Structure formats: structure tokens, C-alpha cells
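To whoever is covering the structure queue this week,

Two jobs came back overnight. Logging them here so there's a record in the thread.

Job A:
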Amino acid sequence: MNIDKFDEDEVKDFLNEHEVKTLNHLPTGAPFSSILAYLVNMDMINEINEVGKRNNCKVSFYIDDIVI
């Protein structure tokens, strides 16, 4: 499949072949959920990390948990 342009039928075939039942949201516990959460929030995570560095704090992130 070309990443720039995809065929809708090809996507539907892939979903059927892999028995994907949920189409309008991420399934809870999906293995890619944490990766997507990071990518969607990357700007915010970087900003929080910079504020922590400026204040001599260590910052730790795990999915939706932030520890400063």
C-alpha cells in the first residue's frame, strides 16, 4: 500500500483480514495506543520536559502519567 495515497477497498480488506471490529476509535489496550498518545501529545511533552529542565527537575512520562 502506498503511504501517500491508499485505496479504500484495500483498507477495508486489511481490516477484515485482521478481524478489526472497531472502526471509529482505538480499541482499549491496543498495542499502538501508547505510541499514538505520545505522537499526539509530543509538543506538550517536550514543553513540560523543558520546564522541568529549567527548574532542575527530573520529568518522567508513561502513557498518561507524568511525574516531576
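Job B:
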Amino acid sequence: MNNMNKKKEDARDEIAAIGIGAMIVFIALVLVAAVASAVIIQTGEKLQQNAQQTGADTQQEIGGKITLITAWVGDQATGGSEEITLVFEPAAGSEPLSETAVNWNIVCGDGATIETVGGNFADATTLAGGAVDTFTQGTVYMINVNVGTTNAWLGGAEECIPVLGEEHVLMVMVNGGGTTYETLSYTDDTQGAPIV
């Protein structure tokens, strides 16, 4: 009888040892799962933040941009007050843009020297000639920009006047937004000749 009790006791001890081993394995699996889920959650949060930042940057870059519709040679009066005329609108999805938040710059040169002229869009008007303070998407505007030496923005030191056969680079930059690049090709330098 003693022998039988001893066998039952050994069997219980063996079952208890198996149970404790199973419990240890279970706890280890729970810990591994917790660590894995924490890593997955942290990675998901990081990816979401990156996606939101990329979306915001893209919206700012695309939405805060000017679309150039056309441009032509403007008034070519002598004395450094030569002009070109730009017709433009804010890009699709743009927030309203302040006229002073939009700047232009033209780079030109003969290969030996590089010259630039520039300014802001404070003198822009609607196509009907009305004054504006803010550019809104869906409305078309125009501006005559001075590309001669009397350009006050640079103190009149340089010029990028229309010259037959030359190409100049126009950049329209929005503060905190995007930049539009266009090549101005002067195949005709008379007033009204298209250059874009």
C-alpha cells in the first residue's frame, strides 16, 4: 500500500512539474507577445507621424504655389524701365496668398556674367484691373514686372531685359510654400510677343 501511495505521489509531482513548466512557457510567450506588440505599435505610430508630416509638406508645397498661365513682352520703354507681363493664378488647392508673400526672380546672363532682377507681387491686379491684397484660388491675376535697371528691389544694379534669342529663368516663390520655374524664351522682343 505504501508503494502505491508513493507511485500516486510521484505521478502528482510529475503532473505538477509539467504544469509549472507549461506555466513558465506561457508566461514567456505572453512577455514575447507584449514586446512584439509594443514594437509594432511604436512602428505604426512612427509611420503615421511620418505620413502626416509628408502630407502636410506636400500640401504646403503644392497648395502654396503659383501657376503661370502665360507671359509676354511688356512695355519696352527705354531708361531701364523695361517690363514683361505675367498672367497667373494660385495653384489648385491653394490657401489665400498675401500679395507680399509671393516673390519673383529672373536670372539671365550671357555666359560670362549672371544677372538677376526680382521683386514681389504687390502690384498685381485682377485681369479687369482691380487692386488685390490676397490671391485666391480660381481667380486669374496679372502683373507687369520691371526687368530693367530701375528695378528698386535690387537697387537698380542689374537687368534682365528682353533680348532677341535669349532665354531667361523665371522663379516665382511663395513664402513657406512652393516655387514655380519657367523658361522665358525671347523669339520676338516686341511688345506683346509671347515668351512662355
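Note for Job B: The first helix runs from residue 2 to 63.

Please reply-all if you pick these up so we don't duplicate work.
Q.
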